[in-house]
Amino acid sequence: MLHSNLLRLVARGSSSRLMSTATKLTTVEVNDETGIATLTMNRPPVNSQNVQLLLDLQASISEIENNKSRGLILTSAHSNVFSAGLDIFEMYNTDVERLRTVWTELQNVWIALYGTSLPTAAAINGHAPAGGCLLATACEYRVMRPNFLIGLNEAQLGIIAPKWLMSGFTNVLPKRVAERALTQGRMFTTQEAFEAGLVDEIASSKEEAVEKCAAFIGSFAKVNPLARGLTKLQFRADNIKEFEKIREKDVADFAALASSPEVQKVMGTYLENLKNKGKK
Ligand SMILES: CCCCCCCC/C=C\C=C\CC(=O)SCCNC(=O)CCNC(=O)[C@H](O)C(C)(C)COP(=O)(O)OP(=O)(O)OC[C@H]1O[C@@H](n2cnc3c(N)ncnc32)[C@H](O)[C@@H]1OP(=O)(O)O
């Protein structure tokens, strides 16, 4: 009988092990040769981030930190979407407590990924709007497949993203480019993202993207992991401290905004448009 905790299954031949079975919407697979863990989001059809996916992401990040992996690659099980961001259905017509939970768990995933000392990279094998871009920019390196879109489109939706949500984005782009993109709610094509520095490399397939992410993580092979991790965290410390100061207030602000009749109306219209798009 397979026990759900701490299972180490031989997944594909002998070169990688599927580590986690306790979670359902994410999987963790560790490459035996490189020691690098691949964390795959698998919530069809678009990896929209509901509370369960956010909790599973946190559990998988902890598992990877605890199993002595050499690094973490975040990717998606789907062919054309990395993650569609927060699950708007979960935020629509719901109570304030649920909205508080959604936002708290988004914060928790972000801080787990942004604040890990492990080397991290995102193999962006599809669109990455809003919360999808948030996860990708919490990582240290990004490799993206061609002809997809990535960006923080909150301004387009009439929403002001808080500073912590923008901080991965503002870390990697020149200030002027970041300000313009955020005020426009701009979605970058893969090529535009590469030219701006939002993604580091372009790969023609998911496999190639994962390989390039692994090569980035492998570039630290000869660096002392403690020195590397602490150096990374020194770079991120200011953003993390700022976030810790406002995290409670940020949850309250989000719940008040997202439950307001105006924003609920925008969500309803947005969801209608998304549904109708599928019928065209
Ligand atoms: C809109 C107002 C939101 C107000 C929020 C209040 C305050 C929040 C503050 C800040 C929060 C920011 C973080 C966020 O992440 S907000 C989420 C923003 N996300 C998006 O705008 C992405 C929307 N989706 C898309 O653009 C596309 O779906 C795309 C990801 C590009 C994939 O395109 P495609 O492959 O063509 O797939 P479809 O559009 O046909 O979608 C397939 C089905 O998936 C459903 N879907 C898509 N996105 C979401 C989502 N974010 N949440 C829930 N469901 C989603 C879509 O309706 C289709 O469903 P069905 O097949 O049943 O029709």
TrEMBL record:
<protein>
    <recommendedName>
        <fullName>Enoyl-CoA delta isomerase 1, mitochondrial</fullName>
    </recommendedName>
</protein>
<dbReference type="GO" id="GO:0004165">
    <property type="term" value="F:delta(3)-delta(2)-enoyl-CoA isomerase activity"/>
</dbReference>
<dbReference type="GO" id="GO:0005759">
    <property type="term" value="C:mitochondrial matrix"/>
</dbReference>
<keyword id="KW-0413">Isomerase</keyword>
<dbReference type="InterPro" id="IPR029045">
    <property type="entry name" value="ClpP/crotonase-like_dom_sf"/>
</dbReference>
<comment type="pathway">
    <text>Lipid metabolism; fatty acid beta-oxidation.</text>
</comment>
<keyword id="KW-0496">Mitochondrion</keyword>
<dbReference type="GO" id="GO:0006635">
    <property type="term" value="P:fatty acid beta-oxidation"/>
</dbReference>
<keyword id="KW-0007">Acetylation</keyword>
<keyword id="KW-0809">Transit peptide</keyword>
<dbReference type="InterPro" id="IPR001753">
    <property type="entry name" value="Enoyl-CoA_hydra/iso"/>
</dbReference>
<keyword id="KW-0443">Lipid metabolism</keyword>
<keyword id="KW-0276">Fatty acid metabolism</keyword>
<comment type="function">
    <text>Key enzyme of fatty acid beta-oxidation. Able to isomerize both 3-cis (3Z) and 3-trans (3E) double bonds into the 2-trans (2E) form in a range of enoyl-CoA species, with a preference for (3Z)-enoyl-CoAs over (3E)-enoyl-CoAs. The catalytic efficiency of this enzyme is not affected by the fatty acyl chain length.</text>
</comment>
<dbReference type="Pfam" id="PF00378">
    <property type="entry name" value="ECH_1"/>
</dbReference>
<comment type="subunit">
    <text>Homotrimer.</text>
</comment>
